[in-house]
Every structure is written in structure tokens, then in C-alpha cells.
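re: ur question from yesterday

yeah so i grabbed the chain u mentioned. its 330 aa long if i counted rite. heres the sequnce exactly as i have it in my notes:
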Amino acid sequence: MNQSRKAYVLISLLALSVGVLPFVIPSPYIIGVMCFIAIYGALALGQAVLMEHAGVFSLAHPSWFGIGAYITGIAAVRGVPHLLAILVAALFVAILAYIMGAPLLRLRGYYLACATFCLLIIIEIVIGNMTSLTGGHEGLLGISPLAIGSFTFEGDRHFYFFSWGLCIGTFWFLYNLMNSRVGRAMKSFNDSEATSMCMGVNVPNYKLKIFVITAVMASLAGSILCFWLRFIQPSMFGFPLLVELITIIIIGGGKTLIGPLLGSFIVMWMRELIHIYLGRVLPVMTAEIDALFFGIIIVVILIFMPGGLAGWLEQLIFIGRRVRERFAGP
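ran it thru and got these C-alpha cells back, copy pasting raw so excuse formatting
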């Protein structure tokens, strides 16, 4: 079975499972957690492609997620049609990512990580201090229910299908991107930038392209979160979210596209278990406490399972094939 057929089968099975789940298990709690899995899975897919496949160690990804959510929410509060608000937010994020990425992507490695981390902190502070526009640290309220045309999204089930539609669409788009000319260029300069440039690959141009593309994907995920929760605040898009994203990628494995989805599923349910059991001991469960536990998990996974779950599953499949070939004989 070739790679394209495998991807088609995987996407079909994922879509079928997602479509059946709300009818088999109609629990509002489970549907709500699955919405988070889809939104954070779509966000982690872009981050993983950016870091693991393109070799761009950017830590500003939660910023595009937050800016997309805030622009969408502010526009919705002011009566802008919701679909237009989502598109305007994505366009604004694309322009901002292009303007910021052009100089920042000249940096490499730790220098790029430090610069983009500073950008993450600056944007969070700016959003928190624009009280008249964003609601400040208290958060943005009064966001109307999502309506596209005559259809109004009501309840978690509608957002479940909407968020998973974005997640599966993001997976399919990135799969095709990785198997296109852009993806082949990314793989080449991720291995060796000098060799790629000698072969005529415009490395800065391709890096900027994938930087902008993943930023737009993060903006779309932020827009869905904004309309689903109908409340956003700056702390939702800061350092704790960055830790969660890195945890998702490390646990799932960033070398394959299915890895971030596996990681999102595990991390979101792990977060729920942490809140359920530690909530009995600690009076308040904050995002910082989540970040503490996820930081410990990152260290453990890096030591004992550096390839993540996806890498571990690939090893099991490889071992299974070797065992089957050995017992099958000549």
C-alpha cells in the first residue's frame, strides 16, 4: 500500500470515528473534551510542521492563536458578520506573521527561539493592557453565538463537528503540502541548509511561507475557540499554552503528522485527570500548575521515549514485520 493510499485510509477512519462518536457516546463532557482535542490538535499540527519538518524553532505559535481569537471576538462584538470576522482575523495574522517573520527568520536555533519567545510575551502583555479594546486581563465578554448565513451553532455538538472539520482539514492540507514541492524543499533544508542553497533552494523564502501558513492555521483554530467559549483572556494564549503544545508534540511525536493528534488526545485527557484528582487537594487549579506537570512529563518522555508515541508505534510495526518475515521463512 503506497503512502497516499495509507493517508486516505487513515483520514477516512479518523473522519468515520469522529462522526460516529457523538451518537455512540452522547456525553456533553466527553464531547467538550474532544472539541479541545481537535482545536489543540490542529494547533499542534502547525507547530510540529514548523519545528520538526521545517526546522524553524519558533515559540510564537500561541500568539497567532490568540491574535486570531481576539480579532474575531472583537469584530463579532462590534457586529461584523462572523465568517467575515474569521477571514479578517486570518488575513491580519498572515500579514503580521509575514512582517514579523521576514526579519526574525534570519535568526537560527536558540537565537530564533529567544526572539520568538520574547514576541510571545510582548503580545500577551499588549493584549492585556489594551483594556478598552480587548477587555484587559479580565477577558473579552459579550461574544455572540457563531452564525454562518442562516445557521447558528448551538451547543457543543455543533462545535464538535466544526472543530474536527478544521482539524482533519488541517491534517489533509499539511499532508499534501509535505508531499508537494514546498514539503520536499523543507525536508532538504531541514537536513542541510547549505546543501539546499547550493542546489538552488530559496531557503528564506520557503521558511517564511511555512511560517505564514502555520500562523493562519493557528488563527483559524483561535477563531473557533473564541466562538465556542464566547470568552477569551490573555492568559489563555501565553507560556502555559506553549508548554502544552510542546508536550503534545513530544508525547505524540513530531516527525509524523499523526503524532500531534495522538499527543493532543493524551494531553487533554491527562489534563482532565490532573484537574479531577488534584482539584481535591489544591484549592485552585491554574494553567501554571498544568505547565508544571507537563514540564515534568516532557523530561520523562525525552529520556525514555524520545520519538514519542508515533515513533514507538513505528518501532513496534517494524519489529512485527521483522518477526513475521523471520517466521515466514524464504
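noticed a couple things. The mean pLDDT is 84. also The radius of gyration is 20 Å.
anyway ttyl
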